[in-house]
Write a structure and sequence with these properties.
- Helix content is 31%, strand content 13%.
- The strands form four sheets. A three-stranded parallel beta sheet has the order 1-2-3. Strands 4-5-6 form a three-stranded antiparallel beta sheet.
- The longest helix is centred in the first third of the chain and has 15 residues.
């Protein structure tokens, strides 16, 4: 069993980041599995090396350890090889549509606007020379999937979400492709992540199939929310780690997260939670961080 925690390094860690790390770590360690940390730093317009360093420090402060640490920006050759494979299969095409052209159209399962595959069939000579975003033409297959937590993730992604962008206009490899390639390269068998990512799962399974990669098991957990608002996010500067560390010790914050997850009360370390860890105890509904 090999699990992973794969945060983006686009801001300071916040309680939602640390909750996701804790649950992924507990899942792997409770089954005597391996767990790796993957720093998702491909978006050069938003990432900073300082946030990567701080994230690793925050996870260690909480009491988490890793069998391996991977950095996305060091794996570009793998993504290029995947694009080569998709191009050779005739699956890549350039897209001239803007995000604004989808507004007011059909809603996708993630709450955004579905892409209507408008540019399918446009020719592509060499993907490296494209000045436009690149999409991959998905098979029109339906994915029937219930994750390990009982959440129905069934979709026909090509219709429900639309063909995904795999390389942005600025040349940055997009999330949907990077996560599939990374998980395949690391031989990930089990993925634990927040339920906000759940609507992307079916799309990622089709990309795995196109690239000849195995499909891991999935589990999507509850989210920490802003009081009366959306989920905690680095974009909003939600309870940054520098503020958390000034108000909590590592065991105090671990205890606060464990309490919200229904895994215990009082100060604790992640290792002290292992003996009684059971997904049946973990809360299912989202909860506000106050």
């Amino acid at each position: 069993m090999i699990g992973r925690f794969a945060p983006s390094t686009t801001g300071e860690a916040h309680p939602g980041t640390l909750l996701a790390a804790l649950l992924a770590w507990l899942d792997a360690r409770s089954r005597d599995g391996q767990i790796l940390l993957r720093l998702e730093d491909l978006d050069v317009t938003r990432t900073k090396p300082a946030w990567s360093h701080q994230l690793r420090d925050a996870l260690a402060w909480l009491g988490l350890d890793w069998d391996e640490v991977a950095v996305q920006s060091q794996r570009v050759a793998l993504y290029n090889a995947a694009l080569d494979a998709l191009a050779a299969a005739g699956r890549l095409y350039p897209c001239s549509c803007s995000r604004s052209t989808r507004v007011g159209g059909r809603r996708a399962p993630d709450g955004g606007w579905a892409y209507e595959n408008t540019c399918r069939g446009r020719p592509l000579a060499d993907w490296r020379d494209s000045a436009e975003p690149l999409r991959v033409q998905l098979p029109d297959d339906r994915i029937e999937l219930v994750d390990d937590g009982g959440e129905d993730l069934s979709q026909t992604p090509a219709r429900d979400m639309g063909d995904p962008i795999v390389r942005r206009r600025d040349g940055v490899i997009a999330y949907q492709l990077a996560v599939v390639v990374d998980d395949g390269a690391a031989r990930i068998t089990d993925i634990v992540r927040g339920r906000d990512i759940a609507p992307s799962t079916a799309t990622q399974i089709l990309l795995q199939r196109l690239l000849g990669l195995p499909t891991p098991r999935y589990r999507h957990h509850f989210l920490l929310l802003e009081p009366g608002g959306p989920k905690l996010a680095k974009l909003h500067g939600s309870h940054p780690f520098t503020l958390l560390a000034s108000h909590y010790t590592g065991p105090q914050l671990c205890g606060a997260l464990a309490t919200l997850a229904n895994l215990g009360t009082g100060d604790c370390t992640p290792r002290e939670l292992l003996a009684d860890f059971d997904w049946a105890r973990v809360r299912r509904t989202d909860v506000a961080w106050t």
